[in-house]
Amino acid sequence: MSQTNDTLPPPPFKIKMVEPIQLTTLAERKEYLKAAGYNIFNIPAEKVYIDLLTDSGTSAMSDNQWSGLMLGDESYAQCKNFYNLRSVVKEITGFEFIIPTHQGRSAENLVFYALNLDKTKIAVSNQFFDTTRANIESMGAKAHDLVIPEAYNTSIYHDFKGNMDINALENFLNQNSNVGVIILTVTNNTGGGQPVSLRNIEDVSKLAKKHNLPLFLDAARFAENAYFIKLREKEYSEFTPKQIAQKMFSYTDGCMMSAKKDGLVNIGGFIALNNKDTYNRIKERMVITEGFPTYGGLAGRDLEAIARGLTEVLSEDYLRYRYQQLQYLGNNLVKANIPVLLPVGGHSVNLDALRFLPHIPQSQFPGWALTIALYEKYGIRSVELGSVVFAHQKEDQTWVYPDLELVRLAIPRRVYSREHLDYVCQSIIDLYKSKEEIKGLKMTYDPGLLRHFNALFEPISS
Ligand code: F0G
C-alpha cells in the first residue's frame, strides 16, 4: 500500500531558525576523502552538503522542546524533569520503572548485564542493530537473527518485512534452552527501517511467555512502526498512533530506547520495564557507569526535551508527513529504475548496492564504494550497511558476506525540505548513468568490532 504520487504535501511546521550548508567543489571533496582514508565517518560535517549518514541525534527540535530546555532542573537527584519524563513514558509504554540513559547503547548494555547475558546465553531478535549485537557479543553471549526470509530480498514487497519468523523462532526455542532474552527491533533498522506488525508482536509474546523468557522492544523508532501498523494492519486503522504504541508495548516486558530517533532529541535514551529485580540490578550497575538513576548521564534539560519529543512524535500529522517524505524520495528513485529496497522504510531509503554496482564483488565493498561516490560527486553523505559493517571471518579465515549490501539514506527528522530530497534524488539518478566508472576499495586498516567507524581504505585503481 505504498504512496505512488510524486508530490509532497507541506510539512506540519514552519522554519524558525536556519543553519547554512555549503556545497564544496569536486576537487576539494577528492582531497577530503583522501585525508579521511575513504571513510565517510572521518569527513568533517561542515564539508558535507546533505547529511544522510544517520537519523540518530540529528532531528530538529521544536520551539516547545527548546523552551523546555530552559526549565531544566539540574538537581543531582530526583529532578522534576525526571518525573515529567517518567509520566510520559509510563503513559505510552505502561511500564512501571523508567530509567534514563545517555543513549540507546548504554540502555542495551545495562539491560543485558541485568539479564545475566553471559557466554552460556543466546539473545534472539528479528534483527539486531550493530551496537545491540556488539553489546551482546562483548558480554560473550551470542546474538541470533530470525527475521522473515523476505527481509533478505530487496525487490519483494511485504507490508511487514521486519517481522520475526514465528516458525523459526518456535523451532529455535525448542532446540535451545539457553536463550536469555528475545528482542524485537521496531522498526528493523538493519533491514531498511521495515516495520513489525502488531500480530507478530503478539505471536512473539505468546512464545516468549510459553518459554518463560523476557521480551523487550528495541523501541528506537516505535512511533514510525506504529504509523505503519495504522496504515497496513486493517484492524488498527482507526486507532491513534499512541493507542497503537500502547498496544505494542503491552505485549512486552520492557523496552530499550534510543531517544535520538523517535524521541526527537539530539541525545538521550531510556529503559522502561516491569520486573523489579531487573530494575534493581540496572540501578545498582548504572551508578558506576551512567550516573544516578533519575538522570542517567543526561542533564535535567535533556530529560525535558525527551519528554516533550515523545509526545510530539506521536502526532498523526507529524507521522503522516514523515511517512510521505520517505515515500516521496523512495518512489521517485524507483520510477527512475534505481535499485531500491522495497517497500520504502520508515526512516531510510536504501539503495541495493549489489544491483547498483554488479561489477564490484563484495570483497571490494560495493556499498562502501557507493557511499564514497555519492559524497565525491555530490557532497551527499550516506552510510553502508553491507560488507564493511556485517561481513565476518570464519575460523578457517574465509569471509562470510551479508545477504544485503545496502546504502542507507537516513532522513533526519524535520530537517530537510523537498528541494533537498529532489537534489538527492537527481544526484543518484545521475550517478546511476555512470555507475560503471565506480571502482571497488581495499581495506587498509581493519579495527575488528564495529569496524565501519574506524576502518581505512584505498581505491582500487585498475
Ligand atoms: N537500536 C537501534 C535500532 C538503532 O538504530 C540504534 C542506533 C541503537 C539501538 C543504538 O542507539 O545510537 O542511541 O546508542 N542507530 C543509529 C543509526 C546509530 O545510525 O542507525 P544509540
CATH superfamily heading of the largest domain: Type I PLP-dependent aspartate aminotransferase-like (Major domain)
CATH class of the largest domain: Alpha Beta
Mean pLDDT: 96
Please state the overall shape, judged from the principal axes of the Cα atoms: globular
Cα distance spanning the termini = 44 Å
Give a short account of the largest sheet. Answer: 7 strands, mixed
- Side by side, the strands of the main sheet go 2-8-7-6-5-3-4
Q: Estimate what percentage of residues fall within beta strands.
A: 5-15%
The tally of helices reads: 16
Helix and strand composition category: alpha/beta
**How many structural domains?**
2
| CATH fold label of the largest domain | Aspartate Aminotransferase, domain 2
| Rg, Cα atoms, Å | 21 Å
Low-pLDDT regions: none
Ligand catalogue: ligand F0G
| Helix proportion | 25-40%
What's the helix and strand layout?
Layout: H1 26-35, E1 50-51, H2 63-69, H3 80-93, E2 97-101, H4 104-114, E3 122-125, H5 130-138, E4 142-145, H6 166-175, E5 179-185, H7 198-210, E6 215-218, H8 222-232, H9 241-250, E7 254-258, E8 269-273, H10 276-289, H11 300-313, H12 316-335, E9 348-352, H13 353-356, H14 366-378, E10 380-381, E11 383-385, H15 387-390, E12 392-393, E13 399-400, E14 406-410, H16 418-433, E15 441-445, E16 456-459
Parallel strand pairs: 1-10, 3-4, 3-5, 5-6, 6-7
Antiparallel strand pairs: 2-8, 7-8, 9-14, 11-14, 12-13, 15-16
The protein binds ligand F0G.
